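Duplicate of earlier report; Beta-ketoacyl-[acyl-carrier-protein] synthase III input re-posted below.
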Amino acid sequence: MGVHILSTGSSVPNFSVENHYFEDMIETSDHWISTRTGIKKRHLAPSSHSLTQLAAEASNNALSAANIKPADIDLIILATSTPDDLFGSASQLQAEIGATSSLAFDITAACSGFIVALVTAAQFVQTGSYDNILVVGADTMSRWINWSDRSTCILFGDGAGAVVVGKSAKNSILGFKLCTDGQLNSHLQLMNVPLEAQQFGVTEIPQGHYNSITMNGKEVYKFAVFQVPSVIKECLNNVNISIDEVDWFILHQANTRILEAIANRLSIPFSKMITNLEHYGNTSAASIPLALDEANRSDKIQPGQIIVLAGFGAGLTWGAIVLKW
Ligand code: UT7
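Output:
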């Protein structure tokens, strides 16, 4: 059974913050942020704009682009690390868009989440279990930032991206490779840190609270620049496609310098890398589907072209998918 990406959609909050705003908050500069990361502004969700709402907006855009009714969706996979509900927000999303016949569940794989979710969806279509699947990558990282930590607070933005995948004679997903190295987990975390505890005799049962994001930027940078080109090469090799045959690379938008270094290692022109960091910063699980949607809606990517998607981030996790658009 072939798996085809029928449509894309995305959404970001209206409110945005430019780099210079941070100059009054922390010791930084627009120059440092733009030259070290490529980011110029990021969109941030106010308290009235939930993760579920952002995901629903992106989903509705993808559903109307595919001309598919919510009731025709069999499965919703929501990739997020920042659900409104720790039990998962896919059910809230299902209710919000009225996809009443679908199973809905979350996947947590940080910035690789959308890649993992798309591969998961493809398995369900290929086995004939489901016909139409809504795959969403959405994150509100702003809710989990320590705004006085200059090494992380300038990086992240909020957003959501979605695709509808369906069974088809045409096959879009030619190959994939997903990886995890849990030994490197401490380099990027959002840890549960008990602040209070209930005493049962001598035993303390901790209350759940989460810390803000902590990141060893240098280590994550080195990991991305080393592992991402290697997983892309392996993935392309497995499906007998040469690097020169790839029309576009849509990678997780973490840092323009990371994308430049990866392009260098792959010996490809940077013009083949689709980037939108300048406008959105790092939107975690949303970054790949957001960039994919923009490239699709602007007709940058064309039917028949070969596209490589690749994600990397906390876990540490990374992975690539080779698509025929
Ligand atoms: O999506 C998940 C995956 N995440 C990533 O891929 C992020 C990967 N890492 C990065 O993108 C980069 O490591 C950062 C953008 C986070 C940092 O850039 P860097 O070039 O690696 O900077 P650095 O950490 O080596 O810091 C260089 C200097 C330090 O000062 P000293 O020690 O040289 O005096 C930092 O304290 O820059 C300082 N610095 C800042 N200065 C101004 C760190 N953050 C800032 C800041 N403004 N916002």
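The CA atoms of residues 18 and 41 lie 4 Å apart.

Merging into the original ticket.
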